[in-house]
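Re-run requested by the PI after the first attempt was lost when the workstation crashed. Everything re-entered from the original request form. Ligand of interest: iron/sulfur cluster.
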Amino acid sequence: MDLNSKLAVLEKIYRIYGDFAATLDIVCRRYCSLCCTVNVTITTLEGFKIAESLMPEEKRYLFEKIRRASSTQRFRPRETVNMLAELSREEGVVPEEDNAFPGECPLLIANECSVYNERPFGCRCFVSKQNCAESGSATVDDFVLTVNNIFLQVIEHVDAGGFSGNLTDVLLFLENAENLLSSKMINPSSVLIKNHPLKILMIPPEHRGKAQPILGALNKLKY
Ligand code: SF4
Ligand code: SF4
């Protein structure tokens, strides 16, 4: 699949998730940004979608902001979600990683996401039934977590050949125009992880029936 086809599929995936999220009883709203932390992870395809949406001046400003914040400690995953799915099948366990570093997302400006319409899936799927400021953390149904994993796995699959990593690292990698346009991206640093194709979906038996409509909608995309 070429880059434009991948971007079109990604847009449709976001739309399918948006329809699902619209059915949920959640309290998330504009300017509520406690979840906008420095620990968000994305794929290079999602990063490309963000970077290409920016006007030159806006891009200069945001990348400068990202660069200034890049010395902040942040979550840098060692495994992608499809790697974790394979590990879980082979070893029955999913290794845990410390993903709770303090600090806010460099794309947050005055409590508002500066790339809201293009925000990555990790932000779209971060939802809560209770206000995090009151409950201390997000309250999410197990089924929603299962659905989120399905989408994360499919997005990684669509971007097989690309990389995953912390939002800051992926965007800094993509700032280089050659990296943006290359169909065979080469990872110059060790902070990004190669995306894996989807081999097995992580769906607990109790959610398999309920997840069928979503799986059906995603399968129609022929990714
Ligand atoms: S997940 Fe929590 S912090 Fe984020 S928008 Fe929803 S309620 Fe607000
Ligand atoms: S990309 Fe936008 S929605 Fe996502 S964490 Fe950053 S500011 Fe928040």
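Saved to the shared folder this time. The longest helix spans residues 3-21.
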